[in-house]
From TrEMBL:
Coiled coil: none annotated. It comes from Phaseolus vulgaris (Kidney bean). This is Alpha-carbonic anhydrase domain-containing protein. Its main location: plastid. PANTHER family: ALPHA CARBONIC ANHYDRASE 1, CHLOROPLASTIC, CARBONIC ANHYDRASE.
Protein backbone atom coordinates (compact mmCIF):
# COMPACT_ATOMS: atom_id res chain seq x y z
CA UNK A 1 0.00 0.00 0.00
CA UNK A 2 2.75 2.41 1.02
CA UNK A 3 4.57 1.34 -2.11
CA UNK A 4 1.53 2.15 -4.19
CA UNK A 5 1.09 5.58 -2.64
CA UNK A 6 4.74 6.28 -3.30
CA UNK A 7 4.30 5.27 -6.91
CA UNK A 8 1.26 7.51 -7.28
CA UNK A 9 3.12 10.46 -5.77
CA UNK A 10 5.91 10.05 -8.31
CA UNK A 11 3.38 9.71 -11.08
CA UNK A 12 1.50 12.86 -10.17
CA UNK A 13 4.75 14.79 -9.96
CA UNK A 14 5.68 13.66 -13.42
CA UNK A 15 2.23 14.53 -14.66
CA UNK A 16 2.47 17.95 -13.11
CA UNK A 17 5.69 18.43 -15.01
CA UNK A 18 3.97 17.25 -18.13
CA UNK A 19 0.94 19.47 -17.79
CA UNK A 20 2.45 22.72 -16.65
CA UNK A 21 4.94 24.95 -18.37
CA UNK A 22 8.72 24.77 -18.33
CA UNK A 23 8.75 26.84 -15.11
CA UNK A 24 8.32 23.58 -13.23
CA UNK A 25 11.81 22.49 -14.15
CA UNK A 26 14.30 23.90 -11.71
CA UNK A 27 17.14 22.11 -13.46
CA UNK A 28 17.97 23.20 -16.97
CA UNK A 29 18.07 20.55 -19.59
CA UNK A 30 19.16 21.23 -23.12
CA UNK A 31 19.71 19.39 -26.40
CA UNK A 32 23.35 20.40 -26.71
CA UNK A 33 26.36 20.97 -24.45
CA UNK A 34 26.89 19.83 -20.85
CA UNK A 35 23.13 19.72 -20.10
CA UNK A 36 22.44 17.69 -23.25
CA UNK A 37 20.54 14.37 -23.47
CA UNK A 38 23.53 12.22 -22.42
CA UNK A 39 23.60 14.04 -19.05
CA UNK A 40 19.89 14.58 -18.35
CA UNK A 41 19.90 11.82 -15.73
CA UNK A 42 22.43 13.66 -13.58
CA UNK A 43 20.81 17.13 -13.72
CA UNK A 44 18.29 16.27 -11.00
CA UNK A 45 17.49 13.21 -8.84
CA UNK A 46 13.99 13.25 -10.33
CA UNK A 47 15.50 12.82 -13.80
CA UNK A 48 17.26 9.53 -12.91
CA UNK A 49 15.15 7.50 -15.34
CA UNK A 50 16.71 9.48 -18.21
CA UNK A 51 19.95 7.55 -17.62
CA UNK A 52 18.86 4.45 -15.61
CA UNK A 53 15.62 3.70 -17.42
CA UNK A 54 15.36 0.47 -19.39
CA UNK A 55 12.20 1.31 -21.33
CA UNK A 56 12.89 4.75 -22.72
CA UNK A 57 11.69 6.69 -25.78
CA UNK A 58 12.07 7.51 -28.63
CA UNK A 59 13.01 4.33 -30.50
CA UNK A 60 13.67 3.09 -33.99
CA UNK A 61 10.57 1.24 -35.24
CA UNK A 62 12.73 -1.43 -36.79
CA UNK A 63 11.57 -4.65 -38.48
CA UNK A 64 13.27 -7.04 -36.07
CA UNK A 65 11.35 -5.52 -33.14
CA UNK A 66 7.97 -5.28 -34.88
CA UNK A 67 5.25 -7.86 -34.32
CA UNK A 68 2.31 -7.61 -36.69
CA UNK A 69 -0.89 -7.81 -34.65
CA UNK A 70 -3.83 -9.13 -36.64
CA UNK A 71 -6.54 -8.13 -34.17
CA UNK A 72 -8.71 -5.26 -35.29
CA UNK A 73 -8.22 -2.49 -32.78
CA UNK A 74 -9.14 0.81 -34.31
CA UNK A 75 -8.45 3.82 -32.10
CA UNK A 76 -11.61 5.83 -31.72
CA UNK A 77 -10.75 9.51 -31.60
CA UNK A 78 -13.32 12.01 -30.58
CA UNK A 79 -11.92 15.52 -30.40
CA UNK A 80 -14.07 18.64 -30.24
CA UNK A 81 -13.39 22.20 -31.38
CA UNK A 82 -11.91 23.87 -28.29
CA UNK A 83 -10.45 27.22 -27.29
CA UNK A 84 -6.72 26.90 -27.26
CA UNK A 85 -3.54 28.73 -26.28
CA UNK A 86 -0.28 28.57 -28.16
CA UNK A 87 2.56 28.23 -25.66
CA UNK A 88 6.31 28.63 -25.88
CA UNK A 89 7.44 25.93 -23.44
CA UNK A 90 11.08 26.97 -23.89
CA UNK A 91 12.09 23.52 -25.14
CA UNK A 92 9.22 23.17 -27.61
CA UNK A 93 6.14 24.92 -28.99
CA UNK A 94 2.82 23.53 -27.86
CA UNK A 95 -0.91 24.06 -27.62
CA UNK A 96 -2.78 23.97 -24.30
CA UNK A 97 -6.56 23.88 -23.91
CA UNK A 98 -9.02 25.67 -21.71
CA UNK A 99 -11.82 23.15 -21.63
CA UNK A 100 -12.40 19.54 -22.52
CA UNK A 101 -10.92 18.66 -25.88
CA UNK A 102 -12.18 15.13 -26.07
CA UNK A 103 -10.66 11.74 -25.85
CA UNK A 104 -9.39 8.64 -27.55
CA UNK A 105 -10.43 5.14 -26.70
CA UNK A 106 -7.68 2.54 -26.73
CA UNK A 107 -8.61 -1.04 -25.85
CA UNK A 108 -11.71 0.16 -24.06
CA UNK A 109 -9.80 2.65 -21.95
CA UNK A 110 -10.58 6.34 -22.21
CA UNK A 111 -7.77 8.91 -22.43
CA UNK A 112 -8.41 12.68 -22.54
CA UNK A 113 -6.27 14.98 -24.63
CA UNK A 114 -4.40 17.45 -22.39
CA UNK A 115 -1.84 19.18 -24.59
CA UNK A 116 0.11 18.79 -27.80
CA UNK A 117 3.54 19.93 -28.97
CA UNK A 118 6.09 19.50 -31.75
CA UNK A 119 9.64 18.22 -31.98
CA UNK A 120 11.98 18.55 -34.93
CA UNK A 121 13.42 16.56 -36.47
CA UNK A 122 11.24 13.55 -35.59
CA UNK A 123 12.11 11.64 -32.43
CA UNK A 124 10.89 8.21 -33.57
CA UNK A 125 12.48 6.62 -36.59
CA UNK A 126 9.98 4.97 -38.95
CA UNK A 127 10.30 3.33 -42.37
CA UNK A 128 14.05 3.54 -41.85
CA UNK A 129 14.09 7.36 -41.62
CA UNK A 130 14.21 10.17 -39.12
CA UNK A 131 11.55 12.47 -40.56
CA UNK A 132 11.34 16.29 -40.44
CA UNK A 133 9.03 16.76 -37.45
CA UNK A 134 6.85 14.93 -34.94
CA UNK A 135 3.64 15.99 -33.22
CA UNK A 136 2.86 14.59 -29.76
CA UNK A 137 -0.75 14.51 -28.60
CA UNK A 138 -0.55 13.88 -24.86
CA UNK A 139 -3.53 12.06 -23.31
CA UNK A 140 -4.21 11.07 -19.70
CA UNK A 141 -6.69 8.73 -18.04
CA UNK A 142 -9.28 10.47 -15.88
CA UNK A 143 -7.42 9.54 -12.65
CA UNK A 144 -4.21 10.95 -14.27
CA UNK A 145 -2.44 7.63 -13.66
CA UNK A 146 -1.72 6.61 -17.25
CA UNK A 147 -0.32 8.49 -20.20
CA UNK A 148 -0.89 7.74 -23.87
CA UNK A 149 1.02 9.83 -26.39
CA UNK A 150 -0.14 9.69 -29.96
CA UNK A 151 2.62 10.68 -32.37
CA UNK A 152 2.23 11.97 -35.91
CA UNK A 153 5.30 12.07 -38.15
CA UNK A 154 5.79 14.72 -40.83
CA UNK A 155 7.97 15.19 -43.87
CA UNK A 156 8.34 18.50 -45.73
CA UNK A 157 5.73 19.06 -48.42
CA UNK A 158 2.29 20.64 -48.58
CA UNK A 159 1.26 22.78 -45.60
CA UNK A 160 -0.42 20.93 -42.73
CA UNK A 161 -4.00 22.27 -42.48
CA UNK A 162 -4.02 21.73 -38.71
CA UNK A 163 -1.01 24.05 -38.22
CA UNK A 164 -2.34 26.49 -40.84
CA UNK A 165 -5.16 27.40 -38.43
CA UNK A 166 -2.81 29.29 -36.11
CA UNK A 167 0.34 29.64 -38.19
CA UNK A 168 0.26 33.48 -38.26
CA UNK A 169 0.18 33.51 -34.44
CA UNK A 170 3.46 31.56 -34.32
CA UNK A 171 5.20 34.71 -35.54
CA UNK A 172 4.11 36.58 -32.38
CA UNK A 173 5.33 33.79 -30.11
CA UNK A 174 8.87 35.15 -30.42
CA UNK A 175 7.86 38.05 -28.17
CA UNK A 176 5.19 36.50 -25.93
CA UNK A 177 5.15 33.29 -23.93
CA UNK A 178 1.48 32.53 -24.63
CA UNK A 179 -1.08 33.58 -27.21
CA UNK A 180 -4.78 32.73 -27.19
CA UNK A 181 -5.69 31.33 -30.58
CA UNK A 182 -9.44 30.88 -30.17
CA UNK A 183 -11.15 27.75 -31.30
CA UNK A 184 -9.12 25.22 -33.19
CA UNK A 185 -10.62 22.45 -35.18
CA UNK A 186 -9.32 18.92 -34.88
CA UNK A 187 -11.01 17.58 -37.96
CA UNK A 188 -7.67 17.52 -39.75
CA UNK A 189 -6.01 15.23 -37.24
CA UNK A 190 -9.13 13.24 -36.47
CA UNK A 191 -8.64 11.03 -39.50
CA UNK A 192 -8.01 7.33 -39.78
CA UNK A 193 -5.86 5.56 -37.23
CA UNK A 194 -6.06 2.16 -38.81
CA UNK A 195 -2.33 1.88 -39.32
CA UNK A 196 -0.21 2.40 -36.27
CA UNK A 197 2.63 1.15 -34.10
CA UNK A 198 2.35 0.77 -30.31
CA UNK A 199 4.89 0.11 -27.58
CA UNK A 200 5.48 1.08 -23.95
CA UNK A 201 8.18 3.69 -23.39
CA UNK A 202 8.77 6.98 -21.62
CA UNK A 203 8.41 10.73 -21.85
CA UNK A 204 11.09 11.99 -24.27
CA UNK A 205 11.94 14.99 -22.06
CA UNK A 206 13.01 14.95 -18.40
CA UNK A 207 11.86 13.44 -16.07
CA UNK A 208 11.73 10.65 -18.74
CA UNK A 209 8.98 8.90 -16.76
CA UNK A 210 8.33 5.32 -17.94
CA UNK A 211 5.08 3.41 -18.45
CA UNK A 212 3.98 5.74 -21.24
CA UNK A 213 1.83 4.08 -23.90
CA UNK A 214 2.97 5.19 -27.34
CA UNK A 215 0.85 5.12 -30.48
CA UNK A 216 2.74 6.19 -33.59
CA UNK A 217 0.46 6.68 -36.57
CA UNK A 218 1.64 4.87 -39.68
CA UNK A 219 0.66 7.59 -42.10
CA UNK A 220 3.37 10.15 -42.75
CA UNK A 221 1.89 13.64 -43.01
CA UNK A 222 3.38 16.79 -44.52
CA UNK A 223 4.08 20.30 -43.29
CA UNK A 224 5.57 23.13 -45.31
CA UNK A 225 9.12 24.35 -44.80
CA UNK A 226 7.62 27.72 -43.77
CA UNK A 227 5.55 25.99 -41.06
CA UNK A 228 8.57 24.13 -39.78
CA UNK A 229 10.57 27.37 -39.71
CA UNK A 230 7.77 29.07 -37.74
CA UNK A 231 7.69 26.22 -35.19
CA UNK A 232 11.42 26.62 -34.59
CA UNK A 233 11.70 30.43 -34.76
CA UNK A 234 10.56 31.27 -31.19
CA UNK A 235 12.98 28.74 -29.63
CA UNK A 236 16.49 29.59 -28.45
CA UNK A 237 19.35 28.04 -30.48
CA UNK A 238 19.85 25.14 -28.01
CA UNK A 239 16.21 24.06 -28.47
CA UNK A 240 15.78 24.47 -32.23
CA UNK A 241 16.87 20.87 -32.65
CA UNK A 242 14.71 19.33 -29.93
CA UNK A 243 14.69 15.60 -30.65
CA UNK A 244 16.08 13.22 -28.04
CA UNK A 245 18.42 10.58 -29.55
CA UNK A 246 17.07 7.06 -30.13
CA UNK A 247 16.98 4.78 -27.05
CA UNK A 248 17.68 1.05 -26.69
CA UNK A 249 14.74 -1.34 -27.02
CA UNK A 250 16.14 -3.69 -24.32
CA UNK A 251 13.97 -6.55 -25.52
CA UNK A 252 10.76 -4.58 -25.92
CA UNK A 253 8.51 -5.34 -28.88
CA UNK A 254 6.55 -2.96 -31.08
CA UNK A 255 3.11 -4.03 -32.21
CA UNK A 256 1.94 -2.97 -35.60
CA UNK A 257 -1.72 -2.76 -36.60
CA UNK A 258 -2.62 -2.43 -40.25
CA UNK A 259 -6.25 -2.54 -41.29
CA UNK A 260 -8.28 -1.71 -44.34
CA UNK A 261 -12.09 -1.66 -44.11
CA UNK A 262 -12.00 -3.35 -40.73
CA UNK A 263 -9.83 -6.24 -41.89
CA UNK A 264 -6.21 -6.98 -41.14
CA UNK A 265 -3.98 -6.90 -44.20
CA UNK A 266 -0.25 -7.51 -44.41
CA UNK A 267 1.51 -4.17 -44.23
CA UNK A 268 3.80 -3.31 -47.16
CA UNK A 269 7.39 -4.10 -46.23
CA UNK A 270 8.19 -0.37 -46.31
CA UNK A 271 6.46 -0.10 -42.91
CA UNK A 272 8.67 -2.65 -41.22
CA UNK A 273 12.06 -2.37 -42.84
C1 LIG B 1 19.15 27.43 -15.00
O1 LIG B 1 19.58 28.46 -15.88
C2 LIG B 1 19.38 29.76 -15.37
C3 LIG B 1 19.74 30.75 -16.47
O2 LIG B 1 20.87 30.33 -17.17
C4 LIG B 1 20.24 29.93 -14.11
O3 LIG B 1 20.02 31.21 -13.56
C5 LIG B 1 19.82 28.86 -13.08
O4 LIG B 1 20.67 28.93 -11.96
C6 LIG B 1 19.92 27.46 -13.70
N1 LIG B 1 19.38 26.48 -12.77
C7 LIG B 1 19.97 25.34 -12.48
C8 LIG B 1 19.30 24.49 -11.47
O5 LIG B 1 21.02 24.99 -13.02
C1 LIG C 1 -13.97 30.51 -26.77
O1 LIG C 1 -13.75 31.72 -26.07
C2 LIG C 1 -14.63 32.75 -26.49
C3 LIG C 1 -14.19 34.05 -25.80
O2 LIG C 1 -13.88 33.83 -24.45
C4 LIG C 1 -16.06 32.35 -26.14
O3 LIG C 1 -16.96 33.35 -26.55
C5 LIG C 1 -16.39 31.05 -26.86
O4 LIG C 1 -17.67 30.60 -26.49
C6 LIG C 1 -15.38 29.99 -26.54
N1 LIG C 1 -15.62 28.81 -27.37
C7 LIG C 1 -15.59 27.56 -26.91
C8 LIG C 1 -15.84 26.47 -27.93
O5 LIG C 1 -15.40 27.29 -25.73
C1 LIG D 1 -14.33 9.55 -21.89
O1 LIG D 1 -14.30 10.35 -20.71
C2 LIG D 1 -14.93 11.61 -20.87
C3 LIG D 1 -14.76 12.36 -19.57
O2 LIG D 1 -13.41 12.58 -19.30
C4 LIG D 1 -16.38 11.43 -21.23
O3 LIG D 1 -16.96 12.70 -21.45
C5 LIG D 1 -16.49 10.60 -22.50
O4 LIG D 1 -17.83 10.35 -22.78
C6 LIG D 1 -15.75 9.29 -22.33
N1 LIG D 1 -15.77 8.59 -23.60
C7 LIG D 1 -15.91 7.28 -23.70
C8 LIG D 1 -15.86 6.73 -25.09
O5 LIG D 1 -16.07 6.55 -22.73
C1 LIG E 1 -1.78 1.86 -16.85
O1 LIG E 1 -1.07 1.19 -17.88
C2 LIG E 1 -0.42 0.03 -17.46
C3 LIG E 1 0.45 -0.46 -18.60
O2 LIG E 1 -0.08 -0.16 -19.86
C4 LIG E 1 -1.46 -0.97 -16.99
O3 LIG E 1 -0.82 -2.13 -16.54
C5 LIG E 1 -2.28 -0.35 -15.87
O4 LIG E 1 -3.31 -1.21 -15.50
C6 LIG E 1 -2.85 0.97 -16.31
N1 LIG E 1 -3.53 1.62 -15.20
C7 LIG E 1 -4.65 2.30 -15.35
C8 LIG E 1 -5.22 2.93 -14.11
O5 LIG E 1 -5.21 2.41 -16.42
C1 LIG F 1 -13.81 12.79 -35.24
O1 LIG F 1 -14.10 11.49 -35.68
C2 LIG F 1 -15.15 10.88 -34.95
C3 LIG F 1 -15.27 9.44 -35.42
O2 LIG F 1 -15.06 9.31 -36.79
C4 LIG F 1 -16.44 11.69 -35.19
O3 LIG F 1 -17.50 11.12 -34.44
C5 LIG F 1 -16.21 13.12 -34.72
O4 LIG F 1 -17.34 13.92 -35.01
C6 LIG F 1 -15.00 13.72 -35.42
N1 LIG F 1 -14.70 15.01 -34.83
C7 LIG F 1 -14.30 16.07 -35.55
C8 LIG F 1 -14.01 17.32 -34.80
O5 LIG F 1 -14.14 15.99 -36.75
C1 LIG G 1 5.91 4.50 -44.51
O1 LIG G 1 5.89 4.10 -45.87
C2 LIG G 1 4.58 3.92 -46.41
C3 LIG G 1 4.72 3.33 -47.81
O2 LIG G 1 5.52 4.14 -48.61
C4 LIG G 1 3.86 5.27 -46.41
O3 LIG G 1 2.56 5.14 -46.92
C5 LIG G 1 3.78 5.78 -44.96
O4 LIG G 1 3.18 7.06 -44.93
C6 LIG G 1 5.18 5.84 -44.34
N1 LIG G 1 5.04 6.16 -42.94
C7 LIG G 1 5.99 6.74 -42.21
C8 LIG G 1 5.65 7.06 -40.80
O5 LIG G 1 7.08 7.03 -42.64
Amino acid sequence: MAMMRFHLAITSMALLALCTSADYFSANFSYTGPNGPANWGSLSPSFAACSNGKAQSPVDLIKSDIVINKQFKNIARNYLPTNATLVNNKFHIGVHFEGKVGDINVNGKNYSLKQLHWHSPSEHKANGSIHDAELHLVHLTQDLSNITVMAVLYKLGDPDPFISQFQDKLVELGKKKEIAIGTIDFEEINGSSRRYYTYVGSLTTPPCKEGVNWIILGKLRTLSSEQLKLLKAPLKPEFKHNARPLQQMNGRKIEMYYHLHGTHVTPPSKYHK
